[in-house]
Specification:
Elements: H1 16-26, H2 30-51, H3 55-79, H4 90-94
Helix pairs in contact: 1-2, 1-3, 2-3
InterPro entries: DUF6247
């Protein structure tokens, strides 16, 4: 018998942030993405300490996983020489961070 209900979503593994950070360090945008991730992670840790909730940490991991997954499509779009002046802000797509 499990103490966790079957319908509860499985949270990211404790090592998800470390794995994500390793992927960010390998990306060609590491110089900007790694400091930004570390800043977001530090802010989420502080929020989690005050709220006693892991949700801010999970939100950071999910947001950065989405950014990393979208990077190849964004690079292909930009390499194609398309006009990106009518783009949509990522915050509009993913929602505002608390």
């Amino acid at each position: 018998m499990s103490a966790q209900p079957d319908h509860a979503p499985v949270p990211p593994a404790p090592t998800a942030a470390a794995q994500l950070l390793a992927q960010l360090r390998e990306s060609n945008r590491a110089s900007t993405w790694v400091p930004a991730f570390e800043q977001d992670w530090a802010r989420a840790l502080e929020d989690s300490r005050h709220s006693y909730s892991l949700s801010p940490l999970h939100d950071v991991v999910r947001t950065w996983q989405a950014r990393l997954a979208a990077a190849p499509a964004v690079e292909a779009f930009l390499a194609g020489g398309c006009d990106d002046s009518d783009g949509v802000d990522l915050a509009d797509v993913l929602g505002e961070r608390p």
